[in-house]
User: Fold these one by one.
Assistant:
Number 1:
Amino acid sequence: MSTLKSRRRFTKWGSYILLSMVAVIMAVPFLWMISTSLKGSQEVYRVPPTLFPSELHWENFTHVLDTVPFGRFYLNTIIVTTIITVSQVVTAILAAYVFARIPFPGRDTIFYLYLATLIVPTQVTMLPLFLLISRLGWIDTYQALTVPFLANAFAIFFLRQFFLTIPIELEDAAKLDGCGRMRFLIQIMLPLSRPALATITLFIFLGYWDDYLWPLVVTNSTDMRTLAIGLRFFIDESGAQFHFMMAAALMAVTPIIVVFFFAQRQFIEGIALTGTKG
């Protein structure tokens, strides 16, 4: 018995040590980015390198804002990411509820067709999608950046799997009390699904906040650039000045860190509770 307890204790502490090592490895590049963003031009190239700057150079961030219109890039990214995130979450909620709860002929076939779109590489659909956007006259507009991504098969699949874990008896009891499907979805299903909703919202937000390829294809002017494109534009403008590059990169990733910090509990719970039923 004592041997079994010792093994469990060893496994537990071994897991803690391994996870701590992984956490440190993941955190070091980010800490180095923060440190470099606050260094002067001479200290960046100092040998041996220093983790903590001898003097904080907050003007690095001011230089970034003066060199490129980072405010405009932020605004574009916020607008595009918000529209896509809200739209995908709403459409995923409605579609996932239908696929999980409402029986109709061909339901499973249609659902599998939705899933089949996940295996199609984005690069395959990019050219025909670009031609369509071009013919509609949407190049260099918010429509080009948002309309092709207003729905997402993965979000529908993710929420459907979570909805299937909610007991059907709840809906049957609600029907006996005169509760319609939409009312049940809004007042009962969605409050129970907050971890899954937070998880898929975070997935969508992170995925489109730093999207690079599609905005690069459909935008031409500086006024329509998003953060990912603007960051690359700033690197071309500033050259190999790493303290400015790191300051710009830190400004670009800070909103992602803030959003994850506030949503991490719901995110972890949503991942743990969402099964593969059905």
Note: The chain has a mean pLDDT of 84.
Number 2:
Amino acid sequence: MASIRLWGKVLVAAFCSKSNQEFYDRISPIYDQCFVTHKLHASNMAKILLEGYKGREKNTLVLDLGCGTGLLSNILVSKGFEVLGIDISLESLRLLQQRESRINTIQADAALLPFTDGTCHAVVSLGAWRHFSDLRRVIAEVARILKEDGLLIVGYFPPAIGGVVHQGDSHWRQLLVRLYQVLIRKRGYVDHIDLSLEPMTVSWAKDHFEQASTVNSGDHWRLIIARGLKQA
């Protein structure tokens, strides 16, 4: 569990940053120390990929969308996958490259992926999904750059408020969500934490994939898995 001092730095960065890029540039040195629960989801996502591409890891290109400092990317490359990381935070990518040179990185926007159609076998996104401003466009871009039998894994849902407080149906938690959204909206920082994010993501994924469903990941969260592109 991260210390109060570290969480204080994260909250200050969230309310002082005028964009998601600025926020993640600010917290990149302490990100892994704060969001330790992501390790569980990263391991679960890696297991799903290993089940789907067993024996073919070296020939499987996985795009880590919003890779950050490389928690999930590092696990995947250690399992033998070919990994490409994309993020808007240059500082996060710099730290990732210092730790693991086998991962190729690109600074880019998830809504405008710099790849030709059918480039990747799989796309994963851990923690970053809530921060994309136009999720329908991101899903469309993911579908475009995936191969026909491609796999998309997104986690985690429902996202914790500020990465700390678990979601719930109680009135005070709903009020906390509204207050948080009002505060960050004025700063230009995007963070979709309302409970509608999960069903909307599943619904939009079904526009492009034959299957889209959720699986549990720990006591509080779920992952969304979408498989098999629909024919245009």
Note: The beta strands are 61-65, 82-87, 104-107, 120-126, 146-157, 209-217, 221-229.
Number 3:
Amino acid sequence: MPQPDLTPKLQRLALINVCLGQFMSALDSRSVTVALPTLSVYFDVSLAVVQWVPLAYQLTIVGLVLSMARLGDKLGRKKIYALGFVLLGVGSASCGLSGQLWQIIGFRVVEAVGGALVLANGRAIASTLYAREGRGRALGMMSMSFHLGYITGPSVGGFLVDAVGWRWIFFMNLPVAIAAASMAWKVLPESVTEKRDYSIDPAGMITLLMTVVSLIVGLQQIAKSGFGLFSLAAFVASAMSLVLLLYFERKDPAPLLDLSLFKVRLLTAGVLSHFFVAPSHASTCFLLLQGIPQFTPTQVGLTIIFFSLVSRVTSAR
């Protein structure tokens, strides 16, 4: 695919916009974490219930990010990417205006659809814009932007909860999303120059989402009331969905998840290492939120940020 004809200035502006999308998606995901105890008290529900606020976001992204990348290839990345910012802003503002916890969880799904559009198509846009030279530097800047949002999210969220209330964790995203969407529409060229009939692979998307959601629901049920028929049924559903996912992806000529990639040992090792590191990090944060209620949200955010900062510094060595 040929690289769009861009001046260096427009190329830099496009990279700034893509980096902003990575930063915003990570910040939006992490800033809510420190507000969970506050939401638990505000809505008078357990922390196990409130944690569906971040889970709804993460699970939706996991289930949709691959499909949204394929959708950008099919319909055009620029319009899909800009739409992602709009959904992020609308969903986030709606969360801040919600009066019930279930409404927040529902609008977090809307946010996550926008986040999936931004995350999936942002890297593809940057790879195309820097196809001739500088791709490694561009992708490195995008990765840095994502981790910067990941690191600063808890401290920003904690400060907002203490200073102006939990609703502003969601309201802060709206002006940024509007500005980013407008910038994306004006600055970014359309990087898909050849229209092809891509398959979105709905079977792969649904089975992937069902595998993850059923597993999380089963674990949640065990934490809530112990192992029982409901949790067993959830685990069985997860296992069956995984089997179907593997079956569909092997049969599909253009699979959503290319299983042959796992034949690359370095890639498989990297995926497995992230798989084991991420739960340990998340569980530590959850224990921190549950075990030290005397800490303010700002203090919790600062504690989490140091944990993340040390992880990022040591991983770069």
Note: The chain is about 80% helix and 0% strand.
